[in-house]
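[job 4471] stage=fold_predict status=RUNNING
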Amino acid sequence: MVALAVALAHGGAAMAQTAPEKGADSDTSDREIVVTGSRIERAGFDQPTPTTVIGASELRIAAKPNIQQVLNDSPQFRATVTPTVSSGNTATGTAPVDLRGLGTNRTLTLLDGRRFVGDGNLNFVPMSMIERVEVVTGGASAAYGSGAVAGVVNLILKKDLKGLSLGASSGVSSRGDGQRYSFDGSFGTSFADGQGHFMIGAEYVDDHGIPDRNSRPNMGSSGIVTTSAGTMLVRDVNFGNMTRGGLITTGVLAGQVFNNDGTLRPFRSGTQIGSARFNSQMVGGEDGVGLYDDVGASTPFKRFNAYARASYDVGKATLWADFSYGRTTSNGKFLPDYVVGPLTISATNPFLSPAIQAQLAAAGETSFTFNKLFDDAFELQYNVMRENKEGAIGIDGSFGNSWKYSAHYSHGEVYSDQQVRNSRIAANFARAINAVTNSAGQIVCAVNADAITTNDDPACSPLNPFGSGAASAASLAYVRGTQESFTTNKLDAAGVSLQGDLVNLWAGPLTIAFGGEARWESQKQSRGALSQISPTIFGPLTLYTSDTSGGFNVKEAFAEVALPLLNLENKAKIDLNGAARYSDYSNSGGIWSWKYGGTARLFNDLLLRVTRSRDIRSPGIGELYSVRSINIAPLVDQDKAGRTATGYNPNPQTVTTYTGGNPLLKPEIANTFTVGGSYSPSFARGLNFSVDYYNIKVDGYITTLSGTLLTLSCAQGNAASCASVIRDSTGTVTTVFTNNQNIANLETRGIDFEASYLLSLDRVNARLPGSIRMRALATYVDKFVFNNGLTSVDTAGDVGDATQRAVPKWRGTFSLSYQNSGFGFDARLRYIGGGLYNHLLPTLVNNHIDSRTYLDIGAQFKVADRFTFYANVNNVFDRDPPLITTGSPLYDIVGTYVTGGVRVNF
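[job 4471] inference complete, writing structure tokens
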């Protein structure tokens, strides 16, 4: 959505030919700013692809810790990965953006128009160095290459920074947790009589996270259960067959729970879900514990990043070089190992008290079944360090009357060290849990009870599982280890482009931009020492099963042309725009992407636009070469018609299942159509309206199917699925490859709206200082259909947090700002439309979720022209989220959050 440049410093979109209005924010200058969303940068050129600019107001309101969270507040983005939805998974420490909800890997993120290493991790970009963000909300692969299926996020950094600026801020929630501290500094200066310029900036953020989920309304362990009142989403859903201290589920002592001193007491159960005595789920219960009770509501992290740039003007050319460094660390609770039991415990286990052993002996029982959530011994701790280094050199210049050129080369690396501490070493645990008393009266592992036993394990230390915290340090050291993965991603990228006017036509210059790009991407992943012993050493919760490496390169050529058809001054102006790109991938061959469209500007006030594009996304390194995992699992054969051979088994129980990357993947292909326009009435200067319709369809969408679904897909005629199912001579399935495949498609359509108004108050009264700016953004999603090749599901209007691809029909923001030379005030409303938790659950009693509206406010004031103090309050009225099972990408779960800070300029 393209509006007027006067709103740039306030967050509006921009066009080059409009000068900033008097009274705008102090960071608005009179220099020409061109925002095009294409390769052609020419004053007066209206390109047809919708583009929105996030400016100073959006960057400062709510005092977000990174640019990702700023963008996530815009209605076109989905907060797929954030600290509040990344607890309990390995995305912790990353900050990609997800435009349109199509997936983070279908939004191309650029830094000053070029790719950067790190898979779009915006934690690596210092907030203090960002001038604005241009968001192209339509397919742009022809202009920018692979990945621009949903659009492009282009981070524009400051280029002419001067002086020294230092800042510090601190934030805390209204509940006293979630503390966050940040410090930043930047410095810029010119040299060589103004021909050269150098600047550097750095930022440090320490976010403590929110460790207690249950401190927030509707969090904890909610779930969907079926009761006498029907199927409903309820709070406090716990395990009905295990406790923290351990629950006996068979025999004479069934229903007894171990206290921490090893004594027994009755199980204080809740409402069991199911007819059996001990079910996997129950609601409530004093001894109840849920899977997410010990997982934080928000993941803690620390971040440091720095950016430096030097440039030097030589004639009409500017030589430049920049370097960036970023490091993020996170150390938080992952998940408890909930798949340890149930265990069979001997009635003579020496860790049982004599009284309990006597009760079992009197009942003639030799063993009992015991189940415990080992959150004391095996509370998995996820530690991750990600480090980014990147350097780039380039030249930008011009010659003649209209020709511009640019070239650059960059090299970047991201290294990550991921650790899952307190992981259970399955074989060691099996030995340690089998404790006996030896001939000397000592409690030892059974394998060490007899001096002549051939499989003695001298390191084995018996583990006491009864009660919480009863295990000895020696036994924990024996049964626990660290899963570790080391990954290095590298990106080398080079590009050259040339733009100029070929000829002046009857309606203006025919402008062309063309060039070439190349990049080389690689990934190498290795495992820690323990993981290398065996792919399944850590049992069912093994994360890293093999080492992997791979890479690819791509060479591309592109061209774009702007053809003016009509130019009647102050009446009508019509332009056509077209672009094409050929990409040659080393792993999948050549492929075209293209775009064509046009604009019509009528009476200077009304701009109409339309575009059609073919966009691509090549598979990422992870999708091609991610770790292959091997599992043995049952399967229900859905392709059994005509299989009558003797010995055929339609339900094999030991099918070898391979998951992971697939080096044979092809690029996804998307077709995008947009049509819309913007209206800026000349009789109301500063007022802008914009509306754009979009329709995006992605074919060859990369996804995975289970073994059972693969057989169903094969039965329906999908040749790729058939090739992934291996059968023996009887027709029985023996092996399936459930790795990534180009087997799905996704289609979405909707409408984006924008309205803004900037009023310089001296137009009302010459003595009134400052300006008022209002802006409203909204997105309506009419359709969001994902088809995995078997079923087609439209999730537009589903808003449940556990509903895959949940997308509200409506999202919107409305902001109001006042700014003068010494004081500023911001207020914003964020709206998330209501809907169904999941429309595929028609019997869910409480399926409807109400809409949510959040109010954020902020203020800034200057003292002595050098100091700026500011404060922000996010979610002023502490609006509760709906019932949440894990973590929601849609709703605010933190609650009211207050931030204050100061900045000083020298």
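[job 4471] summary: Residues 1-33 have pLDDT under 50 and may be disordered.
[job 4471] exit 0
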